[in-house]
Amino acid sequence: MRWTIKNSLYFGFVLLGILVIVFASIARLAHFDADATQEDILRTSNLMREMELLKVSSLEISMIQRAYVISGDAKNIAQLPAMRVELNLHQKNVAAAIAGDAELSLRFRNYSTCLGLRRAFVDKVIGTMKNRGFAAAKALESTGEDDRLMGCIEAQINAMQVRALTRMQAQETANRNLQKRIARTELLTVLLALALLIGMGIKLTAVTIANTHLYTDLVHRSSFDQLTDIPNRHNLEQRLQALLECSAAGDSIFALIYIDLDHFKQVNDQYGHIVGDLFLQHAVRRMKNQLRPGDMLARLGGDEFAALIVNIPDRAHAMEIVTRLEQAFARPFNIQNRQIQGSASMGIALYPQDGRDIDALLNTADSEMYAVKDTHHQQRI
C-alpha cells in the first residue's frame, strides 16, 4: 500500500511537470502570435499613412495644374515630374501593403484607373495651354472633368482608408484577446508550477528552499504592484501607519501627494492597453527620479498613485516636490515610436495639519487632487 501511494505521488509530479511544460509552450507560441499581430498593426498603420500621402499628392498636382492655367507661369508645373515620381512611390508602397486583401486590391485598381485618366487630362490641359493658349485651356478645364476624376480618386482612397481602419480595429481586437489568453495561460502555468514545487517540496529534501522562495514571491506580490514594480496600496498604508505611530510622539511633518494621470483612458482607447501599460511604466520611472531617497511612490490602482514625502519642514517644501513631479510630464513619452504627451493632477495632504490618520490624509489629498483636476479642465475650456 505504501509503495502504491509513493508511486502515485511520483506520477502526479511527472504529470504536473508535463502540464507546466505544455502550458509554458502554449504561452510561448502565443507570444509569437502576439508579436506577429503587432507587426500586422504596424503595417496597417503604415498603409493608412501612405494612403493619406496619396490623397495629398493628388491634390497638390491638381492645384499646380490649376495654378498654371490661371497664371500661365511655367514655373508652376516645373515641379510636376518630381511630384509624380513621389506619387508613384506612394502607389508602389500601397500596392505592396494591400497584397492579399481582395477589397483593397479592387479599390486600388479603381483608384489607378481614375488616376491614369486624370493624369492624361492634366497633360492634355497643359498641352492645350502651350499650343492653343489660355482661353482654350480654360475652356477645357471648365468642363468639370478634372473635378469628376479628382472626386473619383478621393472616393477610392477614402474607401481604402475605411477598409484599412476596419482591418486595424480587427487586428487590435484580436491582439487584446490574444493578450488575455496569454495572461490566462501564463497564470495557469504559474499555478501549476507552484503546485509542482509545493508537492515536490513536501516529498523531496528541498522543501525548505522551495518554501522560502515561494514565501518571498508571495510577499512581493502582496506588497508591490505587478505592472510597475512599485509599492501597492497595502504597502503604502503600512508605511503610513508606521509614520503615524512615530510622528505621534514628536513633531515631525510628512506629506502625502495624491497623483492622478490625466486622460489615461484616452491613451488606452487610442493606442491599446499594451501601450497604456508601457505608458504607466515610463511615467513611474520619471516620477521616481523626482523623489528623494527614503520617499515612497506607490500605485493605488489604475492611473492613481501616491507619493509619501517624509521629514519635510513645511508645505512649501512639499509644493516643490509637486512641481518636480509635474515637470516629469513636460516632455512627451516615446512609446513604440509614438509621441504621447502626459500630464497629472496632484493634491497634497500634510501631517498633522490636514489629518492625523490614514483615511483623513488620503481623503484630503484626494479632494485637493480633484480640485486641481477641475481647474485644469476649466483652463482647457
Describe this structure in words.
- By secondary structure, the protein is α+β, with helices and mostly antiparallel strands.
- It has helices at 2-71, 80-97, 102-132, 134-141, 145-203, 207-223, 233-247, 264-271, 273-289, 315-327, 358-380, and strands spanning 254-261, 296-301, 304-309, 333-335, 338-340, 344-351.
- It has two domains: 21-177, Four Helix Bundle (Hemerythrin (Met), subunit A) (Up-down Bundle), CATH 1.20.120.1730; 226-380, Reverse transcriptase/Diguanylate cyclase domain (Alpha-Beta Plaits, 2-Layer Sandwich), CATH 3.30.70.270.
- It has eleven helices and six strands.
- The strands form two sheets. A four-stranded antiparallel beta sheet has the order 2-3-1-6, sandwiched between helices.
- A hairpin with a 2-residue loop joins strand 4 (333-335) and strand 5 (338-340).
- The longest helix is centred in the N-terminal third of the chain and has 70 residues, at 2-71.
Brief overview:
This protein has 381 residues and is α+β, with helices and mostly antiparallel strands. It has 11 helices and 6 strands.
